[in-house]
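Changelog note: in this version the structure field was regenerated for every chain. One regenerated record is shown below for reference.
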Amino acid sequence: MAQKLLKNGFIISMNAERQAFENGDVLVEDDRIKAVGVVPEEMIAPDAEVMDVTGCIVTPGFVNTHVHTSQQLERGLADDVDLLTWLHERTWPFESSLTEEDSYLSSLACGLEMIRTGVTTFAEAGGQKVNGMGRAVTELGLRAALCQSTMDCGEGLPDGWVRSTDECIETQLAHYEKWQGAADGRLRVWFGLRTIFNCSDDLILRTKALADEKGVGIHMHCAEVLEEVRYVEETRGATTVEHLNKIGALGPNLLAVHTVWLTPREIDLFRLHNVKVSHDPAAAMNVLGFAFVPEMLDRGIAVSIGTDGAPCNNRMDMIDEMWLTTLIHKGRTLKPTAVPAETVLEMATLNGAKCMLWEDEIGSLEPGKKADLVVVHPSSPGTLPVHDPVSAMVYAMHSSDIEATMCDGNWLMKDKKVLVVDEEAVLEEAKSRATFLRKKAGIVLPDRFPTVKVR
Protein backbone atom coordinates (compact mmCIF):
# COMPACT_ATOMS: atom_id res chain seq x y z
CA MET A 1 0.00 0.00 0.00
CA ALA A 2 1.52 3.31 -1.12
CA GLN A 3 0.01 6.63 -0.10
CA LYS A 4 0.48 10.17 -1.40
CA LEU A 5 -0.96 13.15 0.45
CA LEU A 6 -1.46 16.49 -1.29
CA LYS A 7 -1.89 18.96 1.52
CA ASN A 8 -3.37 22.44 1.92
CA GLY A 9 -4.40 23.33 -1.64
CA PHE A 10 -7.50 24.72 -3.35
CA ILE A 11 -9.17 21.49 -4.46
CA ILE A 12 -11.66 21.67 -7.34
CA SER A 13 -13.32 18.29 -6.95
CA MET A 14 -15.97 18.28 -9.73
CA ASN A 15 -17.97 15.90 -7.52
CA ALA A 16 -21.76 15.69 -7.69
CA GLU A 17 -22.09 18.86 -5.57
CA ARG A 18 -19.28 20.55 -7.51
CA GLN A 19 -17.55 21.28 -4.21
CA ALA A 20 -14.26 23.12 -3.94
CA PHE A 21 -12.16 22.84 -0.78
CA GLU A 22 -10.05 25.77 0.38
CA ASN A 23 -6.95 24.60 2.28
CA GLY A 24 -8.05 21.07 1.47
CA ASP A 25 -6.21 17.78 1.05
CA VAL A 26 -6.27 14.82 -1.34
CA LEU A 27 -5.19 11.39 -0.10
CA VAL A 28 -4.16 8.88 -2.76
CA GLU A 29 -3.69 5.19 -2.00
CA ASP A 30 -2.12 3.11 -4.76
CA ASP A 31 -4.08 4.05 -7.92
CA ARG A 32 -7.21 5.40 -6.19
CA ILE A 33 -8.36 8.46 -4.31
CA LYS A 34 -9.03 7.62 -0.68
CA ALA A 35 -10.20 10.97 0.69
CA VAL A 36 -10.76 14.56 -0.49
CA GLY A 37 -11.20 17.78 1.45
CA VAL A 38 -10.80 16.97 5.12
CA VAL A 39 -8.57 13.93 5.54
CA PRO A 40 -8.66 12.39 9.05
CA GLU A 41 -5.19 11.93 10.54
CA GLU A 42 -5.82 8.25 11.23
CA MET A 43 -6.25 7.57 7.49
CA ILE A 44 -2.72 8.73 6.68
CA ALA A 45 0.01 6.10 6.75
CA PRO A 46 3.24 7.01 8.60
CA ASP A 47 5.28 6.54 5.40
CA ALA A 48 2.92 8.50 3.13
CA GLU A 49 4.61 10.75 0.57
CA VAL A 50 3.51 14.28 1.49
CA MET A 51 3.38 17.13 -1.02
CA ASP A 52 2.62 20.61 0.30
CA VAL A 53 0.39 22.29 -2.30
CA THR A 54 -0.13 25.54 -0.44
CA GLY A 55 -1.00 28.25 -2.96
CA CYS A 56 -1.76 25.64 -5.63
CA ILE A 57 -4.96 24.60 -7.37
CA VAL A 58 -5.63 20.87 -7.67
CA THR A 59 -8.07 19.68 -10.33
CA PRO A 60 -9.01 16.38 -11.90
CA GLY A 61 -6.73 15.46 -14.80
CA PHE A 62 -7.86 17.01 -18.06
CA VAL A 63 -9.47 14.76 -20.67
CA ASN A 64 -8.54 15.55 -24.29
CA THR A 65 -11.28 13.90 -26.35
CA HIS A 66 -9.79 14.37 -29.83
CA VAL A 67 -6.09 14.26 -30.61
CA HIS A 68 -4.12 12.92 -33.59
CA THR A 69 -0.94 11.63 -31.95
CA SER A 70 0.40 10.54 -35.35
CA GLN A 71 0.39 14.15 -36.59
CA GLN A 72 2.63 15.65 -33.89
CA LEU A 73 5.75 15.76 -36.09
CA GLU A 74 3.79 17.70 -38.72
CA ARG A 75 3.43 20.82 -36.61
CA GLY A 76 3.83 23.94 -38.74
CA LEU A 77 3.56 22.24 -42.14
CA ALA A 78 -0.04 23.11 -42.95
CA ASP A 79 -0.60 26.67 -41.76
CA ASP A 80 -2.49 29.28 -43.81
CA VAL A 81 -3.63 26.97 -46.61
CA ASP A 82 -7.07 25.97 -47.89
CA LEU A 83 -8.63 22.65 -46.89
CA LEU A 84 -7.77 20.74 -50.08
CA THR A 85 -4.13 21.81 -49.89
CA TRP A 86 -4.12 20.96 -46.19
CA LEU A 87 -5.33 17.44 -46.96
CA HIS A 88 -3.80 16.47 -50.30
CA GLU A 89 -0.46 18.29 -50.27
CA ARG A 90 0.47 18.43 -46.60
CA THR A 91 -1.26 16.20 -44.04
CA TRP A 92 -1.99 13.02 -46.00
CA PRO A 93 1.44 12.81 -47.66
CA PHE A 94 3.18 13.35 -44.32
CA GLU A 95 1.04 10.96 -42.29
CA SER A 96 1.20 8.25 -44.96
CA SER A 97 5.02 8.41 -44.79
CA LEU A 98 5.07 7.28 -41.15
CA THR A 99 6.33 3.86 -40.12
CA GLU A 100 5.23 2.23 -36.88
CA GLU A 101 8.41 3.57 -35.24
CA ASP A 102 7.56 7.06 -36.47
CA SER A 103 4.07 6.75 -35.01
CA TYR A 104 5.61 5.61 -31.72
CA LEU A 105 7.96 8.62 -31.67
CA SER A 106 5.19 11.02 -32.70
CA SER A 107 2.93 9.66 -29.95
CA LEU A 108 5.72 10.05 -27.37
CA ALA A 109 6.25 13.67 -28.39
CA CYS A 110 2.52 14.38 -28.37
CA GLY A 111 2.14 12.68 -24.99
CA LEU A 112 4.90 14.80 -23.50
CA GLU A 113 3.07 17.95 -24.51
CA MET A 114 -0.17 16.63 -23.06
CA ILE A 115 1.50 15.72 -19.75
CA ARG A 116 2.96 19.21 -19.49
CA THR A 117 -0.47 20.74 -20.15
CA GLY A 118 -2.36 18.70 -17.56
CA VAL A 119 -3.88 15.95 -19.71
CA THR A 120 -4.09 12.53 -18.07
CA THR A 121 -6.55 10.89 -20.49
CA PHE A 122 -7.05 11.26 -24.23
CA ALA A 123 -9.04 9.85 -27.12
CA GLU A 124 -6.92 9.08 -30.17
CA ALA A 125 -8.59 10.37 -33.30
CA GLY A 126 -7.42 7.45 -35.38
CA GLY A 127 -4.04 7.16 -37.07
CA GLN A 128 -2.90 4.13 -39.02
CA LYS A 129 -0.30 2.66 -36.63
CA VAL A 130 -2.12 1.69 -33.46
CA ASN A 131 0.67 -0.57 -32.23
CA GLY A 132 3.10 2.35 -32.21
CA MET A 133 0.60 4.46 -30.28
CA GLY A 134 -0.03 1.69 -27.77
CA ARG A 135 3.67 1.27 -27.01
CA ALA A 136 4.08 5.01 -26.47
CA VAL A 137 1.07 5.41 -24.19
CA THR A 138 2.18 2.43 -22.12
CA GLU A 139 5.56 4.10 -21.49
CA LEU A 140 4.10 7.56 -20.90
CA GLY A 141 1.75 6.35 -18.16
CA LEU A 142 -1.25 8.11 -19.69
CA ARG A 143 -4.80 6.80 -19.98
CA ALA A 144 -6.20 6.56 -23.52
CA ALA A 145 -8.76 5.17 -25.91
CA LEU A 146 -6.91 4.25 -29.09
CA CYS A 147 -8.43 3.61 -32.49
CA GLN A 148 -7.53 3.23 -36.13
CA SER A 149 -9.01 5.62 -38.64
CA THR A 150 -10.86 3.25 -40.97
CA MET A 151 -11.95 4.00 -44.53
CA ASP A 152 -13.53 1.67 -47.08
CA CYS A 153 -14.24 4.21 -49.83
CA GLY A 154 -13.16 7.62 -51.09
CA GLU A 155 -10.88 9.19 -53.68
CA GLY A 156 -7.47 10.82 -53.48
CA LEU A 157 -6.40 9.03 -50.31
CA PRO A 158 -2.88 7.63 -49.83
CA ASP A 159 -2.17 4.07 -50.92
CA GLY A 160 -3.27 1.50 -48.37
CA TRP A 161 -5.63 3.76 -46.43
CA VAL A 162 -8.77 2.57 -48.21
CA ARG A 163 -9.41 -1.09 -47.42
CA SER A 164 -12.31 -3.46 -47.88
CA THR A 165 -15.03 -3.32 -45.26
CA ASP A 166 -14.02 -6.76 -44.01
CA GLU A 167 -10.40 -5.67 -43.64
CA CYS A 168 -11.45 -2.57 -41.69
CA ILE A 169 -13.42 -4.68 -39.22
CA GLU A 170 -10.77 -7.38 -38.91
CA THR A 171 -7.97 -4.88 -38.27
CA GLN A 172 -9.93 -3.12 -35.55
CA LEU A 173 -10.78 -6.42 -33.90
CA ALA A 174 -7.11 -7.36 -33.90
CA HIS A 175 -6.22 -4.08 -32.17
CA TYR A 176 -8.99 -4.65 -29.65
CA GLU A 177 -7.70 -8.11 -28.80
CA LYS A 178 -4.14 -6.83 -28.38
CA TRP A 179 -4.59 -3.56 -26.50
CA GLN A 180 -7.97 -3.56 -24.72
CA GLY A 181 -7.26 -3.38 -20.98
CA ALA A 182 -3.48 -3.19 -21.46
CA ALA A 183 -1.14 -1.13 -19.25
CA ASP A 184 -3.01 -2.04 -16.05
CA GLY A 185 -6.32 -1.05 -17.61
CA ARG A 186 -5.18 2.40 -18.76
CA LEU A 187 -5.65 1.48 -22.42
CA ARG A 188 -8.93 0.92 -24.18
CA VAL A 189 -9.58 0.37 -27.86
CA TRP A 190 -12.39 2.09 -29.68
CA PHE A 191 -13.54 1.72 -33.27
CA GLY A 192 -12.79 4.59 -35.63
CA LEU A 193 -14.68 5.94 -38.63
CA ARG A 194 -12.72 8.69 -40.38
CA THR A 195 -15.59 10.63 -41.95
CA ILE A 196 -18.75 9.81 -43.85
CA PHE A 197 -16.83 10.83 -47.00
CA ASN A 198 -14.76 7.66 -46.55
CA CYS A 199 -17.14 5.21 -44.85
CA SER A 200 -19.89 3.20 -46.47
CA ASP A 201 -23.14 2.61 -44.62
CA ASP A 202 -22.10 -1.03 -44.32
CA LEU A 203 -18.89 -0.09 -42.51
CA ILE A 204 -20.73 2.38 -40.26
CA LEU A 205 -23.36 -0.16 -39.22
CA ARG A 206 -20.95 -3.06 -38.77
CA THR A 207 -18.70 -0.81 -36.70
CA LYS A 208 -21.63 0.24 -34.52
CA ALA A 209 -22.69 -3.37 -33.99
CA LEU A 210 -19.14 -4.31 -33.03
CA ALA A 211 -18.75 -1.37 -30.64
CA ASP A 212 -22.10 -2.17 -29.02
CA GLU A 213 -21.09 -5.82 -28.63
CA LYS A 214 -17.72 -4.94 -27.04
CA GLY A 215 -19.06 -2.10 -24.92
CA VAL A 216 -16.70 0.51 -26.34
CA GLY A 217 -17.01 3.79 -28.22
CA ILE A 218 -16.92 4.96 -31.83
CA HIS A 219 -14.75 7.96 -32.74
CA MET A 220 -15.94 9.83 -35.86
CA HIS A 221 -15.44 13.25 -37.47
CA CYS A 222 -19.03 14.35 -37.96
CA ALA A 223 -20.64 17.35 -39.72
CA GLU A 224 -17.14 18.78 -39.84
CA VAL A 225 -17.27 20.91 -42.99
CA LEU A 226 -20.05 22.27 -45.18
CA GLU A 227 -18.76 20.25 -48.14
CA GLU A 228 -19.35 17.06 -46.16
CA VAL A 229 -22.98 17.90 -45.42
CA ARG A 230 -23.64 18.77 -49.07
CA TYR A 231 -21.92 15.60 -50.24
CA VAL A 232 -24.07 13.40 -47.98
CA GLU A 233 -27.22 15.20 -49.13
CA GLU A 234 -26.29 14.54 -52.76
CA THR A 235 -25.20 10.92 -52.35
CA ARG A 236 -27.40 9.62 -49.52
CA GLY A 237 -30.38 11.93 -49.49
CA ALA A 238 -29.94 13.70 -46.14
CA THR A 239 -27.46 15.69 -44.12
CA THR A 240 -24.80 13.80 -42.14
CA VAL A 241 -26.56 13.48 -38.80
CA GLU A 242 -30.00 12.97 -40.36
CA HIS A 243 -28.55 10.13 -42.41
CA LEU A 244 -26.80 8.55 -39.41
CA ASN A 245 -30.10 8.71 -37.56
CA LYS A 246 -32.00 7.17 -40.48
CA ILE A 247 -29.72 4.13 -40.64
CA GLY A 248 -29.65 3.68 -36.86
CA ALA A 249 -26.04 4.74 -36.26
CA LEU A 250 -26.61 7.30 -33.50
CA GLY A 251 -26.16 6.17 -29.93
CA PRO A 252 -24.61 6.90 -26.52
CA ASN A 253 -21.26 5.39 -27.51
CA LEU A 254 -20.78 7.65 -30.55
CA LEU A 255 -18.24 10.44 -30.01
CA ALA A 256 -19.06 12.95 -32.74
CA VAL A 257 -16.15 15.29 -33.35
CA HIS A 258 -16.37 18.96 -34.44
CA THR A 259 -20.15 18.92 -35.24
CA VAL A 260 -19.95 22.41 -36.69
CA TRP A 261 -22.63 22.09 -39.38
CA LEU A 262 -25.68 20.97 -37.39
CA THR A 263 -29.31 22.02 -37.70
CA PRO A 264 -31.46 22.55 -34.58
CA ARG A 265 -33.22 19.26 -35.33
CA GLU A 266 -29.87 17.45 -35.49
CA ILE A 267 -28.90 18.86 -32.11
CA ASP A 268 -32.16 17.42 -30.78
CA LEU A 269 -31.28 14.07 -32.36
CA PHE A 270 -27.99 14.13 -30.46
CA ARG A 271 -29.90 14.75 -27.24
CA LEU A 272 -32.45 12.03 -28.03
CA HIS A 273 -29.74 9.41 -28.65
CA ASN A 274 -27.32 10.66 -25.96
CA VAL A 275 -24.57 11.21 -28.55
CA LYS A 276 -21.33 12.59 -27.11
CA VAL A 277 -19.52 15.59 -28.65
CA SER A 278 -15.89 16.70 -28.84
CA HIS A 279 -15.52 20.42 -29.37
CA ASP A 280 -12.14 21.50 -30.77
CA PRO A 281 -12.17 25.30 -30.73
CA ALA A 282 -8.76 26.10 -32.24
CA ALA A 283 -9.22 23.66 -35.13
CA ALA A 284 -12.74 24.97 -35.68
CA MET A 285 -11.57 28.56 -35.83
CA ASN A 286 -8.78 27.60 -38.22
CA VAL A 287 -10.68 25.80 -40.98
CA LEU A 288 -14.17 24.65 -39.94
CA GLY A 289 -16.49 27.20 -38.36
CA PHE A 290 -18.28 27.69 -35.06
CA ALA A 291 -20.10 24.83 -33.37
CA PHE A 292 -23.34 25.43 -31.47
CA VAL A 293 -21.80 24.57 -28.13
CA PRO A 294 -24.02 26.67 -25.80
CA GLU A 295 -27.10 25.27 -27.53
CA MET A 296 -25.88 21.70 -27.09
CA LEU A 297 -24.97 22.26 -23.45
CA ASP A 298 -28.40 23.81 -22.79
CA ARG A 299 -29.99 20.60 -24.10
CA GLY A 300 -27.95 18.48 -21.71
CA ILE A 301 -25.61 17.03 -24.34
CA ALA A 302 -22.21 15.96 -23.00
CA VAL A 303 -19.83 18.32 -24.81
CA SER A 304 -16.12 17.93 -24.10
CA ILE A 305 -12.94 19.59 -25.36
CA GLY A 306 -10.23 18.31 -27.70
CA THR A 307 -7.13 19.81 -29.25
CA ASP A 308 -7.19 17.96 -32.61
CA GLY A 309 -3.80 17.51 -34.31
CA ALA A 310 -0.70 19.66 -34.70
CA PRO A 311 -1.27 20.49 -38.42
CA CYS A 312 -4.54 22.32 -37.70
CA ASN A 313 -3.81 23.44 -34.14
CA ASN A 314 -0.18 23.94 -33.38
CA ARG A 315 -0.87 23.64 -29.64
CA MET A 316 -1.87 20.40 -27.93
CA ASP A 317 -2.65 22.52 -24.88
CA MET A 318 -5.91 22.05 -22.98
CA ILE A 319 -5.34 25.24 -20.98
CA ASP A 320 -5.38 27.20 -24.25
CA GLU A 321 -8.41 25.25 -25.50
CA MET A 322 -10.39 26.06 -22.34
CA TRP A 323 -9.63 29.75 -22.80
CA LEU A 324 -10.69 29.65 -26.45
CA THR A 325 -13.86 27.70 -25.65
CA THR A 326 -15.25 30.34 -23.37
CA LEU A 327 -14.24 33.30 -25.55
CA ILE A 328 -15.42 32.24 -28.99
CA HIS A 329 -18.94 31.41 -27.83
CA LYS A 330 -19.28 34.71 -26.01
CA GLY A 331 -18.31 36.38 -29.27
CA ARG A 332 -20.61 34.27 -31.44
CA THR A 333 -23.67 34.70 -29.22
CA LEU A 334 -22.85 38.19 -27.92
CA LYS A 335 -23.61 36.87 -24.43
CA PRO A 336 -20.86 37.45 -21.84
CA THR A 337 -22.46 34.75 -19.68
CA ALA A 338 -22.20 32.06 -22.37
CA VAL A 339 -20.08 29.04 -21.39
CA PRO A 340 -18.74 30.39 -18.07
CA ALA A 341 -15.54 29.20 -16.39
CA GLU A 342 -17.17 26.50 -14.27
CA THR A 343 -18.84 25.01 -17.36
CA VAL A 344 -15.56 24.98 -19.28
CA LEU A 345 -13.81 23.15 -16.42
CA GLU A 346 -16.64 20.63 -16.42
CA MET A 347 -16.20 20.14 -20.17
CA ALA A 348 -12.46 19.51 -19.71
CA THR A 349 -12.89 17.02 -16.87
CA LEU A 350 -16.19 15.33 -16.06
CA ASN A 351 -17.77 15.81 -19.50
CA GLY A 352 -14.57 14.49 -21.04
CA ALA A 353 -14.85 11.40 -18.87
CA LYS A 354 -18.49 10.95 -19.93
CA CYS A 355 -17.57 11.29 -23.59
CA MET A 356 -14.96 8.58 -23.15
CA LEU A 357 -17.43 6.32 -21.28
CA TRP A 358 -15.08 6.43 -18.30
CA GLU A 359 -16.98 8.62 -15.85
CA ASP A 360 -17.27 5.81 -13.31
CA GLU A 361 -13.52 6.03 -12.74
CA ILE A 362 -12.23 9.45 -13.81
CA GLY A 363 -13.30 13.07 -14.31
CA SER A 364 -13.63 14.10 -10.67
CA LEU A 365 -11.71 13.90 -7.40
CA GLU A 366 -13.82 11.58 -5.26
CA PRO A 367 -13.08 8.63 -2.96
CA GLY A 368 -12.89 5.43 -4.98
CA LYS A 369 -12.09 7.06 -8.30
CA LYS A 370 -8.76 6.77 -10.09
CA ALA A 371 -6.03 9.12 -8.90
CA ASP A 372 -5.77 11.29 -12.02
CA LEU A 373 -5.04 14.90 -11.10
CA VAL A 374 -3.19 18.11 -11.92
CA VAL A 375 -1.37 20.47 -9.57
CA VAL A 376 -1.32 24.05 -10.83
CA HIS A 377 0.87 26.67 -9.17
CA PRO A 378 -0.23 30.12 -10.36
CA SER A 379 2.97 32.11 -10.04
CA SER A 380 3.61 33.87 -13.35
CA PRO A 381 3.02 37.58 -14.03
CA GLY A 382 0.37 36.64 -16.58
CA THR A 383 -1.62 34.65 -14.03
CA LEU A 384 -1.40 36.58 -10.77
CA PRO A 385 -3.25 37.75 -8.77
CA VAL A 386 -5.78 34.95 -8.28
CA HIS A 387 -9.01 36.33 -6.82
CA ASP A 388 -11.23 33.54 -8.13
CA PRO A 389 -9.41 30.18 -8.61
CA VAL A 390 -12.07 28.69 -10.90
CA SER A 391 -12.12 31.75 -13.13
CA ALA A 392 -8.31 31.89 -13.11
CA MET A 393 -8.06 28.30 -14.33
CA VAL A 394 -9.95 29.21 -17.52
CA TYR A 395 -9.23 32.89 -18.18
CA ALA A 396 -5.72 33.52 -16.85
CA MET A 397 -3.83 30.27 -16.41
CA HIS A 398 -0.97 29.13 -18.64
CA SER A 399 0.31 25.61 -19.03
CA SER A 400 3.66 26.82 -17.69
CA ASP A 401 1.89 27.14 -14.32
CA ILE A 402 1.31 23.38 -14.15
CA GLU A 403 3.54 21.92 -11.47
CA ALA A 404 2.65 18.24 -11.53
CA THR A 405 0.53 15.66 -13.33
CA MET A 406 -0.59 12.33 -11.89
CA CYS A 407 -2.32 9.41 -13.63
CA ASP A 408 -3.40 6.16 -11.98
CA GLY A 409 -1.69 7.26 -8.78
CA ASN A 410 1.70 7.72 -10.46
CA TRP A 411 3.51 10.99 -10.99
CA LEU A 412 4.01 11.62 -14.71
CA MET A 413 5.48 15.03 -13.98
CA LYS A 414 6.55 16.49 -10.64
CA ASP A 415 8.21 19.83 -9.92
CA LYS A 416 7.80 20.46 -13.67
CA LYS A 417 10.09 17.53 -14.50
CA VAL A 418 8.72 14.70 -16.65
CA LEU A 419 9.50 11.42 -14.89
CA VAL A 420 8.25 8.73 -17.29
CA VAL A 421 10.52 9.09 -20.35
CA ASP A 422 13.68 10.95 -21.33
CA GLU A 423 12.02 14.12 -22.59
CA GLU A 424 15.15 15.70 -24.06
CA ALA A 425 16.06 12.56 -26.02
CA VAL A 426 12.53 12.17 -27.41
CA LEU A 427 12.37 15.76 -28.59
CA GLU A 428 15.82 15.67 -30.18
CA GLU A 429 14.90 12.56 -32.12
CA ALA A 430 11.54 14.09 -33.07
CA LYS A 431 13.23 17.13 -34.59
CA SER A 432 15.57 15.15 -36.81
CA ARG A 433 12.96 12.57 -37.81
CA ALA A 434 10.41 15.28 -38.69
CA THR A 435 12.86 16.85 -41.12
CA PHE A 436 13.46 13.48 -42.76
CA LEU A 437 9.73 12.78 -43.05
CA ARG A 438 8.99 16.19 -44.55
CA LYS A 439 11.51 15.51 -47.31
CA LYS A 440 10.26 11.95 -47.76
CA ALA A 441 6.70 13.24 -48.19
CA GLY A 442 7.87 15.78 -50.78
CA ILE A 443 6.53 18.76 -48.85
CA VAL A 444 8.21 22.03 -49.82
CA LEU A 445 7.22 25.13 -47.87
CA PRO A 446 7.40 28.51 -49.62
CA ASP A 447 9.50 31.18 -47.93
CA ARG A 448 7.30 33.59 -45.98
CA PHE A 449 9.90 36.32 -46.47
CA PRO A 450 12.84 36.52 -48.88
CA THR A 451 15.32 34.24 -47.15
CA VAL A 452 19.08 34.35 -47.56
CA LYS A 453 21.07 31.31 -46.45
CA VAL A 454 24.20 32.79 -44.94
CA ARG A 455 25.96 29.47 -44.23
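Spot check on this record: The longest helix spans residues 423-440. The chain has 15 helices and 19 strands.
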